Amino acid sequence: MPQETEILTEPAATGTPNSIILITILVGLVLLGLFLIFQKSYSSTPAHLLTNTSIKKNHIPTFLIIGPSNSGKTTLFHYLSKKSSVLEANANGKDSDSDNEANNDKKVNNYLPADGTVTSTTFNINNQFKLPLSSSFKKNHILIDIPGNIQISNNLVPTFLKNYLNIKGIIYLIDSNASDESLISQSNFLFNLLLKTESYSPNGIDILIGLNKSEIFGSKPIFKVKNLLINQFDLLKRNYFQNRSSTIKNIDTDQMNQPNSNSIDNDNSGDNDNDFQFANSSTSFSFDQLEGNVDFFTGSLYKNDIDRWENWLDERAVN
Ligand SMILES: *[C@@H]1O[C@H](CO)[C@@H](O)[C@H](O)[C@H]1NC(C)=O
Ligand SMILES: *[C@@H]1O[C@H](CO)[C@@H](O)[C@H](O)[C@H]1NC(C)=O
Ligand SMILES: *[C@@H]1O[C@H](CO)[C@@H](O)[C@H](O)[C@H]1NC(C)=O
Ligand SMILES: *[C@@H]1O[C@H](CO)[C@@H](O)[C@H](O)[C@H]1NC(C)=O
Ligand SMILES: *[C@@H]1O[C@H](CO)[C@@H](O)[C@H](O)[C@H]1NC(C)=O
């Protein structure tokens, strides 16, 4: 508390220490109040405090935001959280000035955190994430922002997949200005993520690959990022399945043990063909082989160009 240190360094000669203490306490209470109000809607939990008991199994529809550090995940988390809560308040008629609000809704800046560069080493969770954004008939969702640090991610992602049994989608953010080398190293992480999401449920999990910084001159267009990932996934898939039996049932079941993983073949036969090709080490990788849909969209909070991402969330929220 900075207030306390001020008291200590304040010379006693300046007079009324009692009133200084009183003011300090008042300021402290106001800050605490603001903090509690903030905590109520979304909170940060240090990753090291995360235990098996603090994450309980639940079926609340959930979205995860994943990606490397500096891809803008936490900014996106705060933006979506704030927008969803403002729109919900408006939908509940807490603001009569609807014309102004309708215009404000379109301005990205209104929802951005004051400090534009938020980084986080903890995961952020919003338990009051109201979707769809574009409809007044909203339903509660959970939005979780997982830190980019690869080790934290590797620990947290499986924990969330095991306990959040109704994950509607994952936003994976990519810096489209990243080098080929950086994208290649990310592709390992992303491939492992796909192995997990594909065994999560019969339908897998839908993934939005969001390309950030697409407005920068020299950034990679979608098709380049996509082709690079397809080539990498192809290599990784061949290695991964070479020594495994070619049914998807075996994917990662040692780690996942999802209740649904045994029913994965109860789908229609068309999907089974896809499973089969994904797990066949001599077939080239394609995104069609996955149960979950993978969409690539550029987006930029700076350019007020985030509609495609919001629509993607809304579509999954109503399904
Ligand atoms: C949860 O418990 C399992 C074993 O029951 C353990 O392997 C895992 O590391 C634990 N996860 C966390 C986040 O503590
Ligand atoms: C984009 O990438 C180039 C080359 O790596 C780098 O010099 C530049 O700083 C990057 N720009 C941004 C905004 O990240
Ligand atoms: C596949 O398994 C066999 C026998 O377990 C082993 O000898 C071989 O090295 C493995 N190949 C690869 C590519 O892992
Ligand atoms: C895997 O794919 C190859 C080439 O498409 C095909 O010849 C082979 O029969 C497939 N293997 C299985 C087990 O289906
Ligand atoms: C893109 O990344 C920058 C940080 O590098 C971040 O400030 C910005 O919010 C991100 N954009 C989106 C759409 O998340």
Automatic annotation (TrEMBL):
Q: Answer yes or no on keyword Transport.
A: no
Question: Where the protein is mainly located, per its record?
Answer: endoplasmic reticulum
Keyword set, alphabetical order: Endoplasmic reticulum, GTP-binding, Hydrolase, Membrane, Nucleotide-binding, Receptor, Transmembrane, Transmembrane helix
Q: Where in the cell is it found?
A: Endoplasmic reticulum membrane
Q: Name one GO cellular component term.
A: endoplasmic reticulum membrane
Give the stretches traversing the membrane: 20-38
Similarity remark:
Belongs to the SRP receptor beta subunit family.
Protein name in the entry: Signal recognition particle receptor subunit beta
